[in-house]
Amino acid sequence: MLFSMVQKLGGVPLVFVDTETTGASAEFGHRVIEVGCVRVEGGKITAEYQQLIDPQRRIGPGVSALTGITQEMVAGRPTFSQQLPAMLEVMRGGDGAVVVGHNIRFDLSFLHREFRRAGMEMTSILGDVPVLDTVRIARRRFGRGGNGLQTLSRRLGIEPSVAHRALADAQTTHQVFNHLLAPAGGMECCLCDAIQQQGGPMGLMPRTQRESLLPLELEEALELRKSVQMEYLDADGRRTQRMIQPLRLRRSNGELLLVAHCHLREAQRTFKVERIVRLIRTEESIQNP
Q1: Which of 7, 167, 269, 279 could join 36 via S-S bond, C-beta 3.0 to 4.6 A?
Q2: Same domain as 231, residue 160
Q3: Are 32 and 56 contacting, i.e. CB atoms less than 8 angstroms apart?
Q4: Spatial contact of 251 and 230, defined as CB atoms under 8 Å apart
């Protein structure tokens, strides 16, 4: 399907996409464990899709603590390639769709690699479709930082029913998108105006290697270099909380590590990214104890 830039959003098929993954980086071989899609046509939801996926590798403990998705839940589920035809029925439909997500570049980095493992090219299957990112729109409205999906949705008066599950997050992203685009005309605004709201066009693949492919909270914590509250699983699997100032990421023996100043120890410490449950800005932790 060829998309006209002057076509109203209400006349453009949109598919809101979210994934849950075994870890923070597709580059490190992490895999998709759940996918959720919401297809919208004529401004109304016409189809939804959700599927747990067997990643055929271990799920990081921080991911299980955050999402509630365990190794037992995905064992015996379809692999990504096995569920792909059903997912494409919603994502691609008959005429394709504009792809929308929250920090969508992260999700697309995983989907790109999963498509390749299935012997397909994502860009060939989905086509040269426009991509919209609610994080980019929110940053132009509210500035950088504090644009995680749960924080942003509550700022906009939306109360998610469930958090950190693929379909629920895709549904929340749909609501956030509608609220963010309302000042520009909502479904009556043109596709080109929606693209302008995020600062310019995006495609399925990044234009440069500089585009971040990390989870939003980790990306912003590193970028802003401000102290954040970290919820972390220790070696015994116990949840601990501490204030840290993120400094940089480091790779060691195939693992992704976060180097940070730990305020508790008043010293530099290294934390396994796979054991981080969440990172919360200090002002957000006060608002959401």
Answers
A1: 167
A2: no
A3: no
A4: no
Alpha-carbon distance of 98 to 12, in angstroms, equals 7
Residue 220 lies in a domain: no
Q: 78 and 194: one domain? A: yes
Q: Is the pTM here over 0.85, yes or no? A: yes
Write out the two tokens for 211.
């585009």
Tokens of 121: 């090219």
Taking the C-alpha atoms of residue 18 and residue 14, their distance in angstroms, rounded to an integer, is: 13
Tell me phi and psi for residue 268, to 5 degrees: -75, 135
Q: What per-residue confidence (pLDDT) applies to 146? A: 86
Looking at the structure, do residues 137 and 255 belong to the same domain, yes or no?
no
**238 near 134, Cβ under 8 Å?**
no
What is the pairing mode between strands 98-101 and 14-21? Answer: parallel
Helical residues (DSSP H) of the chain, grouped into ranges: 61-67, 71-74, 80-91, 104-117, 122-126, 134-142, 149-155, 166-181, 191-197, 216-224, 282-287
Q: What is the mean pLDDT of the chain?
A: 92
What are 289's two structure tokens?
Answer: 């104890």
Phi, psi of 246 (to 5 degrees): -60, 140
Tally the domains of the chain.
2
pLDDT band at 212 (very low <50, low <70, confident <90, very high): low
Domain carrying residue 198: 9-208
Cα(36)–Cα(19) distance, integer angstroms? 6
Asked, for residue 216, whether it belongs to a domain, the answer is no
